[in-house]
Amino acid sequence: MTTTTAPVTRPALLSRFRRPAPGPGAGRRGLRAGLTPYLFLVVPLAFLIVLTYVPVVNMFWYSFTDWDGLDPTKNLVGLQNYRDVFTQPDNLRVFYVSLYYFAASFLQMALALYFATLLSFKVRFRSMWKGILFFPYLINGVAIALIFTNFLKPDGGLDVLLSGLGLDSWIRQWTGDPAVVNYTLASVSVWRYLGLNFVLFLGAIQSIPNDQYEAADLDGASKWQQFWFIILPSIKPIVGLSVILAISGSLAVFEIPFIMTGGANGSETFVIRTVNMAFEFNKVGLASAMAVVLLVVVLIVTWIQRRLVPEEERAAKPAKQAPAEPTGATS
């Protein structure tokens, strides 16, 4: 027994795939679908505006007043707060303290670049050394400050170690002597943040193609020449980023000196001075001016770095202008 099916005509076939006519509520549904992504952004944008942009605008406004943080009236003083930042001796001293951390950051970058270059090649226990170098960066800053406070206190771990080695003449008041306290605190910062720069440099070095090293080996280049002519030019953007972080970080040091010394014995940093101005001396206007100065310094340094090292533009131009090489061409 056979069954026959009627042939499907073209209008009937097209009717199966024809979209139904939009109903009266289709326009509203489309409008709601278009607005849905923006509705999800309302809460984050509200938090961003209320907790970030509004305080920044208020900070600029307070910097031109003599507000003490409590008085409902705010008297305009013009640029007096900014003049005090750069003329009062106590305020100028914190810039001098920042130079210790600025110099230490370059030592930190040099050590990080050395270890990153070394561990980017085949070295025994390479993963272990990477973990050891990066681990201090994972520790909370407060915990690091407390650890070194006990390690550097009189008759603490460092003094016992030096005495055991017969170096009693080297023992100092590591956090109490104004002559050495900033060296001590800067060294702690180097130990803590070395892992960050190490990971940045290591990732950049490992992204360099291996054929460049192979070509350099064939040409008889030494390891120093490979570093100077292959590695360093390839990681120039990361070096520039590290310099920016060094300059801004040297002014923004806070938790380690604040916990270990409280800014005493000549170790007061720019941020500690700003906090003390606002909450200890009730000079919110002057503290706001100092915060604005820190923000402007970071922005200027970033702009200078982008002008001097426009790496993205330099990398893009040769790619657009270089003619296509024939197949099989060798360099």
Structure, briefly:
With 331 residues, this protein is mostly helical.
In words, what does this structure look like?
There is one protein chain. The protein has about 325 residues and is mainly α. About 70% of the residues lie in helices and about 0% in strands. It has helices at about 10-15, 25-60, 80-85, 90-120, 125-140, 140-150, 155-165, 180-205, 210-220, 225-235, 235-250, 255-260, 270-280, 285-310, 310-320. The protein is globular and about 70 Å long. It starts with 9 loop residues before the first helix and ends in a 10-residue tail after the last helix.
What's the order of the H and E elements?
A: HHHHHHHHHHHHHHH
Helical proportion? over 70%
Q: Flag low-confidence runs.
A: 313-331
The value of Rg in angstroms is 31 Å
Beta-strand level of the residues, as a percent range?
A: under 5%
CATH class of the domain at 98-271: Mainly Alpha
CATH architecture of the domain at 98-271, by name, is Orthogonal Bundle
N-to-C CA distance: 77 Å
Number of helices in the DSSP assignment: 15
- CATH homologous superfamily descriptor of the domain at 98-271: MetI-like
The largest β sheet comes out as: none
What is the global morphology?
globular
In total, how many beta strands? 0
Mean pLDDT across the residues is: 82
CATH-assigned fold name of the domain at 98-271: MetI-like fold
Structural class estimated from helices and strands: mainly alpha
